[in-house]
Amino acid sequence: MKRVDDFRLRLGNQELVPIVIGGMGVDISTAELSLEAARLGGIGHISDAMVPTVSDRRFNTKYVRNKLAQYKFNVANPDKSVVKFDLGLLAEATKLHVSRTMEAKRGPGLVFINCMEKLTMNAPKDTLRVRLSAALDAGIDGVTLAAGLHLGTFSLIEDHPRYNDAKLGIIVSSLRALQIFLKKNSRHGRLPDYVVVEGPLAGGHLGFGMDWAKYDLAAIVAEIHAWLVAEKLDIPLIPAGGIFTGSDAANFLEMGAGAVQVATRFTVTHECGLPEDVQQEYFKASEDQIEVNQISPTGYPMRMLKNSPAIGSGIRPNCEAYGYLLDASGNCQYIEAYNREVAAHPEARKVKVFDKTCLCTHMRNFDCWTCGHYTYRLKDTTRKNEDGSYQLLTAEHVFHDYQFSTDGKIALPE
Ligand SMILES: Cc1cc2nc3c(=O)[nH]c(=O)nc-3n(C[C@H](O)[C@H](O)[C@H](O)COP(=O)(O)O)c2cc1C
User: Fold this and answer.
1) Quick one: pLDDT at residue 414?
2) For residue 237, what is the enclosing H or E element?
3) Tally of CA atoms within 13 A in the half-sphere of 104 that contains its CB
4) Residue (of 244, 198, 204, 200) closest to 378 by Cα position
5) Of 106, 209, 267, 327, which residue is least crowded by CB atoms under 10 Å?
6) Residues 6+ apart with CB under 8 A from 232
């Protein structure tokens, strides 16, 4: 039986170990994690979710404090349309995050940025253009377009000097989404360099409805692969979602995939941004503690641990400080849900909101424990300490386990 190391992903003139660590916002896939993937010859992702916030934590900048000070007058106002991002500062934060990461890159692999269209930031087109251009300016190797159909995204950057030299990819969950993306972007002079096909077992937001369990990653990959062959389009496919062992990965590579994208196994590594107490929650989780729910104000279903503090929390919307999910008119589904509960309980000092969550605040504070379907298997990938906690892994250990293991085996740490 073949193993992942028998394959290589060819992107332009580069040959890579066909392992991609997927983007995990907000700073769960840290620069450190992405740099390990690159050092080991694969591809890592940083995320451009809430970059000003991430920059404050990473570089001690004051973007969030200053934005809150600027819009403090609006905190009690349910209308958030005035709360805008300063595009110059957004570019500055993105350049800082990306350039510092790229300066630290060693080894033969690549670092990409995961860029989510659903981060509409009260001015969807302008903020997306700025985030993409700034990342390209700062030398990112590639951009993975995520959480959205990205029908107009290539047009936002087609004049950028690095438009053709940077690697550009898109995440889809169906052949139909890929067909629409290719049709809409066909006027902009290039194809994507790779397509991530994300199935229903992934972490984060899902590109499926609540009937996600009906879908099967291998079937979607096979359908897209057959269509690309029929259309004579040579674009590497990168399946993602539930690929838990090196053998799972090798099976997809034998089917013709160019690489695999994985994430859940890396959530319990030292290099991952999750605090260690949260990582222990991931280790401890049982299968029935993992759910797909609809509390994300983006409107996409999201997978998470049922004991996430974000669920049911009724905090006041924090859009003056954050506001990453405000649509073009300053609305967010959480604001509506929160105001409804406040109106229904006028005497209450604190309300509970169960149908939506303030995703910006809770992702920022690592209180929304989004995870892949197989998180309950993480405990089988390590050793238990004497105090009952689980031993964290290194990203190198997990990467090499994917690269070299066979027969469905998982190597435990020393
Ligand atoms: C904690 C966590 C956070 C994630 N956040 C994002 C994200 O911000 N954007 C995105 O496109 N995908 C996100 N994903 C999806 C991963 O990038 C990846 O495609 C998927 O989880 C792979 O499946 P696996 O976790 O079963 O290996 C996230 C996944 C996890 C586990």
Assistant:
1) 87
2) strand 237-240
3) 14
4) 244
5) 106
6) none
Confidence grade of residue 15 (pLDDT, cut at 50, 70, 90): very high
- State the average pLDDT over residues 303-309: 98
Is this structure's pTM higher than 0.90?
A: yes
Q: What average pLDDT score do residues 255-261 get?
A: 98
| Amino acid letter for position 332 | C
CA-to-CA distance for 125 and 327, rounded, in angstroms? 11
Q: Compute the distance from residue 339 Cα to the ligand 1 centre, in Å.
A: 31
Q: How far is the CA of 49 from the centre of ligand 1 (A)?
A: 13
Residue whose structure tokens are 């950057």: 157
- Residue 165 pLDDT greater than 90, yes or no: yes
Q: Please, what is the average pLDDT of the chain?
A: 97
Q: Is the dihedral of CA 12, 138, 147, 34 positive or negative?
A: positive
Q: What is the dihedral of CA 295, 27, 305, 248, to 10 degrees?
A: 120
What digits encode the pLDDT tens for the residues 261-292? Answer: 999 999 999 999 999 999 999 999 999 999 99
Q: At what angle do helices 217-230 and 175-185 cross, to 10 degrees?
A: 40
User: What DSSP string runs through 370-387?
Assistant: B--GGGGGGGGGS-B-TT
Tokens encoding 322? 């954050």
User: Is-contact 215 257, C-beta < 8 A?
Assistant: no
Rounded to the nearest angstrom, the distance between the alpha carbon of 204 and the centre of ligand 1 is 5
Confidence check: pLDDT of 1 > 90:
no
**Cis amide linkage into residue 221, ω under 30° from 0:** no
Find the residues whose C-beta lies inside 6 A of ligand 1. 22-25, 28, 47, 49, 114, 116, 146-147, 171, 198, 201-204, 240-243, 261-264, 267, 370-372, 374
Amino acid 246: pLDDT: 98
Beta carbons within 8 Å of 81's beta carbon, 6+ residues apart: 122, 329, 330
